[in-house]
Design a protein that fits this description.
By secondary structure, this protein is mainly α. The chain has a single domain, classed as Chorismate mutase (Chorismate Mutase Domain, subunit A, Up-down Bundle). Helices cover 74% and strands 0% of the residues. The longest helix has 32 residues, at 14-45. The chain starts with 13 loop residues before the first helix and ends with a helix.
Length: 103
């Protein structure tokens, strides 16, 4: 069996689909690691703890994700819910990093 993954539309077996899902999940985790790296950078850069939570920025990030998802034909409402959890988790992580850096 080839190690090369077919694109979703080229899959002909469930084994290919599953390998593709697993590979994509690994890529998503790597992207989340990079995203949380930016949260660590923000915690290092922001001079005040109160600057971590920015509701206007949170709304903008979620709106951008929803719009991009809908443009791709994905369920915007569910992506909005998912991104709200992602952003809230990012804020909690950034707050913990901010505290850790200054303790």
């Amino acid at each position: 069996m080839s190690d090369e993954l077919p694109l979703p539309n080229d899959c002909t077996t469930m084994a290919e689909v599953r390998r593709g899902v697993d590979a994509t999940d690994r890529e998503l985790i790597a992207l989340l690691d990079r995203r949380f790296g930016y949260m660590r950078a923000a915690a290092r850069i922001k001079p005040e703890r109160g600057m971590v939570r920015d509701e206007a920025r949170k709304a903008q990030v979620i709106e951008n994700a929803c719009a991009e998802a809908e443009q791709l034909g994905l369920p915007g409402e569910k992506i909005t819910q998912f991104w709200d959890i992602l952003v809230e988790t990012s804020i909690e992580y950034e707050l913990a990093q901010w505290d850790r850096l200054r303790s």
